[in-house]
Amino acid sequence: MDYSTFFTNRSTTEITADIIGRPLTYTAGSQTMGGYIVEAEAYLGKEDRAAHSYGGHRSLANEGLYRSGGTIYLYAQRQYFFFNVATQAGNEPQGILIRAIEPVWGIEQMLVNRHGKGGVLLTNGPAKMMQAFGIHDLSWNLHSLQASPFTIELDSSHQRPARQIVRSPRIGVNQSEREWADKPLRFYVAGNPYVSRMKKRNWRTDHGWQ
């Protein structure tokens, strides 16, 4: 299966659930960094009040959402960067925000990139993850995953199975829009300490993996 098929052959919520536990890596020169995806959010396009494409809004900034499934959509808020992947066919602007990974590969380099902030702080949030990869600009925006230094492993034999995948409301959605603020479009591994805002009392010794 290729990226275009994986990111278009089901609903965005199904794809988001399926991406949990898959390896996400970024290669810079000879250094590969990454880990297992433990948290992601679905954004459902023109009807979704939390989506950048709500109401059919389209601009140079959010063009990545309008590209075909498997296209990288990067955006910035101040000095922070966020990694998204478009889902569905072109002009159907839906996507997935990768919020956190459990780091496995290139941890030493990621620690350098995060200025020594280790432990769960290394990658337990979308901006932290991008800092750990050393991403400081939008260079890879609008590229296909296939033609980028990012890799999401599609071979399910490499996917780490979670004991439980929790669905919850997304983080940071405007609470005045109750319908969309409350929709359970965030998926994460129960008990994994690298999930953003995971309380320490809820951490599991096995990090939520089978």
Automatic annotation (TrEMBL):
<protein>
    <recommendedName>
        <fullName>Putative 3-methyladenine DNA glycosylase</fullName>
        <ecNumber>3.2.2.-</ecNumber>
    </recommendedName>
</protein>
<keyword id="KW-0227">DNA damage</keyword>
<dbReference type="InterPro" id="IPR011034">
    <property type="entry name" value="Formyl_transferase-like_C_sf"/>
</dbReference>
<keyword id="KW-0378">Hydrolase</keyword>
<dbReference type="InterPro" id="IPR036995">
    <property type="entry name" value="MPG_sf"/>
</dbReference>
<keyword id="KW-0234">DNA repair</keyword>
<dbReference type="InterPro" id="IPR003180">
    <property type="entry name" value="MPG"/>
</dbReference>
<dbReference type="Pfam" id="PF02245">
    <property type="entry name" value="Pur_DNA_glyco"/>
</dbReference>
<comment type="similarity">
    <text>Belongs to the DNA glycosylase MPG family.</text>
</comment>
